[in-house]
Every structure is written in structure tokens, then in C-alpha cells.
Automatic annotation (TrEMBL):
Pfam families: BTB. Signal peptide: none annotated. InterPro entries: BTB/POZ_dom, SKP1/BTB/POZ_sf. Residues 26-87 form the BTB domain. This is BTB domain-containing protein.
Amino acid sequence: MNEIEIASDTIRVSDEYHPSYSSPSADIVLLSEDGVKFRVHSSILGTASKFFNDMFRMPRSSAENRDDALPMGESSEILKTLLDIIYPHDTNPVLPSMSFAFVRRLLSAAEKYDLARVTHYVQLVTKTEPFLSRPLEVYALACIFGWTEEAHRLSLQTLNLDLSSPTYEEILTSIDSASLYKLFQLRWKIKKEMAQAVQELDSEEIDEMRRCYCSNFPRGHTEAWECLEMFIRGELDKYPDGSSLRHPKFWSHGGLDKLWNLKCNICDEPVVRKSGVNEYIIDILDHGMPDF
Ligand SMILES: [Zn+2]
């Protein structure tokens, strides 16, 4: 081991090269933050990156040795992953971690060193599991790295997430305020649309929602209808895509019994058909939502 001085920090540098990148035919040495050396081919780096291409075209000082290490300011794990992606290996590169923090760091390094192939590869990976199940993380990456088209599509996939859950705190704080605003605006829009439809429920003359036809649809029982509205708003706060309203559990909640038990003042039978209201709300979810 020997010591090397980099930006006032002294790090321990191994005399050995990383076993995957130690070819004697390679002409450049990259050094990771944690002191691991990678012997690599300038031709491969230069082809993959304009940054390196420009750098290698600069005249090198005669005092420089081909074994002088180039400090990269990245961990050995990130550096190896970058190289695994840009080198023409026989097998597909594997990301050593699928965590949000790692992928974000990898994309930052790719951006810093102008490695478009790395960005492209990671974008493909985020279209597979486990990222398919983590749309908020991919939305955050799309916002951070300017994948504009992706961001919109992904924002729609985040609708059934409860963003108030502490699970999402780290990811939400990584998103810029304009993108965060868009994410919430989408939710407000849906909630407003649904609240409006629910408010109009007690004045709707919809046969499927009636159980008796003695008189007009019961008005003046606004308290019971308001209760339904309040419940629906609560569910949309948690799941703005309305997915929980599709669940029978929502409709069997005891808090709604008052509405289902509303009696007709002529025949004394219940007047509101639960299944009819349920179907009406689901129909709004299916067809009446705002276009994005
Ligand atoms: Zn009646």
C-alpha cells in the first residue's frame, strides 16, 4: 500500500489493480475514492465518452507516467459498474445494487463523465422489476435527470401510493419543487373532479340508485350523502386513483349505513340502492376522470 494526496484528503491506495480491470495492455489507470485502481483502455473510454475523448486528445506532460492514477471521485463499486456497462463483455452488466441511492449515484457519475450508454442502460433497467413496482423512485430519477416524457407517464403510476407514508420521504425530498407540484396537482385534479360528481349525487335522477319510486329521489337528507362524500374524499386522499373505492370493503363500512337505511316517507322502505351508487362511482372512475 502507498498513500496518495487528493484534494487535501489522504487515502490508502492499493498497489494491486481491480481483478476485473488489470489488463497489462490497458494504458490508463483510474482511481476510485476508496483507493482501488482500475487499469483501462483509453480507446474504450474515449469511444464511450466525449469527456474522456477530449481529455485524451490533450497533450500529456512528459513527466507523466502511464501508471499515474486518475482520481475519479467515485466509489470503486460505481466505477466498476460504469466500466462493466461500457466495456464489450460477453455477458450483460449486472447492477450490484438496485437501491434508489445507488442508481441515482450511478446516473450522476454517468452524467459527470458524459457516458450516454450508461444512462441508456439504466433507463432500460428501470423499465423492469424491481423498479416497475417502485414508480415513485423512477419518477424521481426521471425528474432529476430530465427524462421529460418518462416523467409524465410515471406520475400517473404513482397515483395509488400514499405519499404521506414515511417510506417515501427520502425519494420525495430528492424531487425538485416544480416536479413535486405536478405530482400533487394531478391528485388535486382527480379529487376535485370526483368531489364534484359526488356532490351532485343526491340531485341525480339515476334509476339504478333508487329502490322505491314513490316520490322524487330523497332530498333533504344531505347529512347521509355528505357522509359518503367525506368518506370518498378520505379514500382519494390516500389513493387518488380511487382504487380503494373499487374494493367491497369500502362500501360495507358501517359509517355509510345511514345512507343505505334512508327510508321513504310514503312506503317506509329503504330508498337508496347501494349497488347502484357503487356502480355509479366506479363508472366515474372508469370514464369520468380528467384527461391528462
Ligand atoms: Zn317509497
